[in-house]
Write a structure and sequence with these properties.
Elements lengths: L1 H21 L14 E6 L4 E6 L2 E6 L5 E3 L6 E6 L5 E6 L7 E6 L6 E4 L2 E6 L6 E5 L6 E5 L6 E5 L8 E3 L4 E4 L2 E9 L6 E9 L24 E6 L18
Antiparallel strand pairs: 1-2, 2-3, 3-4, 5-6, 6-7, 7-8, 9-10, 10-11, 11-12, 13-15, 14-15, 15-16, 16-17
Length: 248
């Protein structure tokens, strides 16, 4: 009886060992680390462009197809043209060292639009691209016409408090106002905050400047920048939906 039991045990162990040799190693079951998809931006043709490992990818929501638009890397903050045929993007290791490039969604080679510039955004009518000019000591808000590359200064310098630096892509609120996410150095504490500003493109000054707590704050010398969202940390994410409409 004992011999039969021992024989059965040996048989079972032999079967288990055979099965183990057929199984892949445990590492094969480990989930590969996911590569984060960054800065997704939806277009008007049911497509989404996003940044993956520094390159631009296009995803069609209807068909589910995805294709890679660029291969040379370093792309940041893509933005659609109103007709959905072109993209503007920053290209560089970071925003402060970026250039502004223009590319078609058909996968053609990107074209250098402005050196030492970032954060581009198309105007609602598609005739201009607003961007942050980083070629001088202080950043400036300018626009360029892609058709003939004519440039216009919208606000220079683009500054607030003891200094301001680009913190994200610009966005046209309407034809006369541009939203600008900026990292701002506070006058008193010298801390860096990430705020969202509504910049008027008209020469007349804004009547008021309000922060998140509805408290009056000191405006820039040009009186054309209104802080409409104020964070308590430089890691906060700002959104155009947090900005109230400009006063008439």
């Amino acid at each position: 009886m004992r011999q039969e039991t021992a024989s059965h045990v040996r048989c079972i162990l032999w079967i288990v060992c055979c099965l183990c040799t057929l199984l892949p190693p445990a590492s094969a079951f480990a989930r590969a680390p996911a590569t984060p998809v960054r800065q997704p931006t939806s277009g008007f043709q049911g497509e989404i462009v996003y940044v993956l490992e520094g390159n631009l990818w296009l995803h069609d929501l209807a068909s589910g197809a995805t294709r890679q638009l660029t291969e040379d890397g370093g792309y940041l903050l893509p933005g659609w043209s109103p007709d959905g045929r072109q993209l503007v993007a920053s290209r560089g290791t970071d925003l402060e060292s970026a250039d502004l490039v223009l590319l078609d969604t058909d996968g053609s080679e990107p074209r250098l639009l402005v050196e030492q510039a970032c954060c581009g955004a198309w105007s609602p009518d598609g005739t201009q691209i607003a961007y942050v000019d980083l070629s001088a000591d202080e950043p400036a808000l300018r626009a360029i016409a892609p058709a003939n590359e004519e440039r216009t200064t919208l606000l220079a310098p683009l500054t607030y408090g003891r200094g301001a630096y680009p913190a994200g892509k610009l966005d046209w609120f309407n034809a006369e106002n541009v939203l600008a996410p900026l990292e701002v150095i506070d006058d008193d504490s010298l801390l860096v905050y990430r705020d969202l500003f509504l910049v008027s493109l008209r020469n007349q000054p804004s009547r008021t400047c309000m922060n998140k707590e509805k408290l009056a704050v000191r405006c820039s010398a040009e009186m054309r920048m209104r802080r409409c969202w104020h964070s308590t940390t430089s890691s906060a994410t700002v959104s155009a939906t947090t900005c109230p409409p400009p006063k008439a």
